[in-house]
Amino acid sequence: MDLIIRAGRDDHRVIAELSAPATTGLRLARAVPFTAIVADAPVAAARPELRETAESAALPFLVDPMTFLLADVQPPAHAWARLPFAGAEALRPADLAHGDVQDELVERVIMFQREQGATLLIPPYVYMGKRDDGWLPVQLSLLRRTARYLERENVDLPVAAIFAASLRQFGPQAQWREGLDAFIARSQELNTRFVGLSLSWSEQGKDSYDTLAMLLTVTRHAAGRAPVIAWRQGLYGAALTAAGAQGYETGPGHSERGMYPTLMSDRRPRPPRPDDDGPNGFGVANVYLGPLGRSLRRADARVLLEDMPMRARLLCQDDACCPDGAGSMVTDWRQHATRARASQLADLARMPQSSWRLNQIARDAERAALIARDASEVLHRGGRDVTVPHASFEHLAAVADAVRAEAGSDVA
Ligand SMILES: [Zn+2]
């Protein structure tokens, strides 16, 4: 099972440290807790150390071109807007309709990734927010033109094809054929290692039964047609892996959700806000809470870890990961987040059947719902204006059980 870590601008040392067992060749007790490294295109350019780490650890390295940003305005001085394939102006589908324009984009995007040392290439991809907004035909065409380009240039590197789309628009079963299925079929014209299924919806983390049912069902469907990685899916990565994905991609304790409309609008020209996280976790500190499968801001996590009964429920149980208990979780928050996610995936991988995995996800989610409820109380008592939504965990438990029941009836 794959855990792909999205390294931010500030993460190169942490990634090097976590990769040490592979780069130094020392036979340490612990393995590298991820199976590939991805960096946003500007981060890859600013931090060549990431590529070097991936190379010495013999891990695939991906450079995310973030070409969904082409559809929005960018500050011209922004690092992404200055990349050779990017720009500050917002493009419409009509601007990218012409084959020559697409070919040029493909060439620049792929050349850039190769210059940055990518060993797994990402064809240009856009965010499809509406079925009829005109981006789907552009996306399908970009895949085909990437296939032709790679063939013409004799590039035999494998490809990760990213399907970035609105869950509400492309998730319902009636929409699969013309959207996701067409994309997967087109991706098979390339040497595709996996399809990065990157579905986006608002209010991630406060999810209804219907939202989660759609997410797990569409992921299971896609995984039956191609190897799938749940892309930008820190919140439900383990659940989607249990549902059939081969793994998931997320940041190390940050960048755990991926709402494309926000990723795009956040980068529009505007004066900085005082509470900005900064892209890629630059300047953020969070703490990953394993039983909840997500990170909270450090100040909030501290309040929880200082409450003795709550600490007992949230403490990292792995002495090799967090030898100083809560202190390690707070200080080495990115290492802890990555290792804890890896060990959860390893536990799932040890289960021989998908139904066992889904059962595990459901039981974990039931426990998480109880913890979330109590955690909100502790936070409010501690004067923090934060609630950990517990209903989404209850919904996840019910959905995982329903998917498991349906999978069981498929077999019978
Ligand atoms: Zn830990």
Which properties best describe this structure?
412 residues, alpha/beta, TIM Barrel, 2 domains, two-stranded antiparallel ribbon, 17 helices, 12% strand, binds zinc ion
Bound small-molecule species? zinc ion
What is the CATH superfamily classification of the largest domain? Aldolase class I
**β-strand number:** 10
Sequence of strands across the biggest β-sheet: 3-2-1-8-7-6-5-4
CATH topology of the largest domain: TIM Barrel
* Poorly predicted spans: 273-279
Mean pLDDT over the full residue set:
94
- Overall spatial form: globular
In short:
With 412 residues, the protein is of the alpha/beta class. The chain has 2 domains: 280 residues, TIM Barrel (Alpha-Beta Barrel); 122 residues, no CATH class. It has an 8-stranded parallel beta sheet with strand order 3-2-1-8-7-6-5-4. A two-stranded antiparallel sheet has the order 9-10.
How does this model look, in words?
There is one protein chain. By secondary structure, the protein is α/β, with parallel strands linked by helices. The chain has two domains: 2-281, Alpha-Beta Barrel (TIM Barrel), CATH 3.20.20.70; 290-411, no CATH class. Helices cover 47% and strands 12% of the residues. It has helices at 12-18, 20-24, 41-46, 48-56, 99-115, 135-152, 167-170, 177-187, 209-223, 237-242, 260-265, 298-306, 308-314, 326-331, 333-349, 354-381, 391-411, and strands spanning 2-7, 36-40, 61-64, 127-128, 159-166, 192-200, 228-230, 247-250, 286-289, 294-297. The strands form two sheets. Strands 3-2-1-8-7-6-5-4 form an eight-stranded parallel β-sheet. The chain has a two-stranded antiparallel sheet with strand order 9-10. β7 (228-230), α10 and β8 (247-250) form a beta-alpha-beta unit. Bound molecules: zinc ion.
